[in-house]
Design brief:
The chain is an alpha/beta fold and 257 residues long. Helices cover 46% and strands 16% of the residues.
Length: 257
Amino acid sequence: MSEKDLLYKVNNNIAYFMINREKHRNSISAETVNLFLNYLDQAEEDQNVRVICVTGAGEKAFCSGADLGSTMSGENKVDPFHNYARLLKRLTGFPKPTVARINGYCLAGGTGFMLACDIVIARDDAKFGTPEVNVGLFPMMIGALIFRNVMRKKAMEMILLGEKLSAQEAMNMGLVTRIVPCERLDEEVDRVLQSLSLKSPIGMKIGKEAFHAMDMMPVEEALDYLCGKLKEVASTEDAVEGITAFIEKRKPVFKGK
C-alpha cells in the first residue's frame, strides 16, 4: 500500500500535519484535502492536542499548489475547488493555535494553507508567490486570505505578475511572521510550538473563536461582543489558575477548563 498524501501524528500535545508528496513538490491532491479535513476533526476533538503544525515533506517545498493534472482532469467525483475552500475555512477558523513551517517553495494553493495558519515561520531561502496567472488561472479562494494579510497594491502586484518572491519580500509584505536560517528552522518552530502548548487551551479557544467572529464587525459591535467574551474567559478555571500563579510567582498549570 502506498503512503498517504498527508501524514498525521501527535507528540507532546502537538499535532503535526505533513503534506507527503515530495516527488510532486508537495502539490495538493484530492486525497490531501480530504485527509486534512479528517485530521483537523481529530485534532480538535483530541484534548491532548493543544497546537498544530503544518509543513511539507523533504527540503524543497512546503506546498507548490494544486496538482493541476488531477484537479483539472475532471476525474474527481467531488468538486476539488469546493473542498479546498472548505479546508481554508476550517483551518482559518480552527480553535487551536496553528503554525506553518515553511521548508521551501510555497506557491499558489500552498499560500492558502500558509495564510490560514496563525503563525508562519519560514526558511530564509524559501520562495513564495501566486503563479496562477502564468497558466491562465487566477488565485481565487486564497485571495480572501491574501487581502486580509497584505496591503492591496502589493497583493495585486504579486497576483498579477505571478513572480516568485524571496522570503524577505514575503516578510516585508506580511505573508510570514518570521524568517530564520535554514539550519535553525526546526529549532525555532519547536520553540514556538512548545511555548504555545503551555498556554491555556480554553483561553486560546475562546479568544481565537472570538477574534474570528468579530473580524468584520463594526467597531462598536466588536467591542461589546469582545467584552462579553472577556467575561467568559475570565470565568474559566485556567484564568483563576493563571492569575493565582502570577501572584504566587510560579508557572501556571493549565487544564483547559
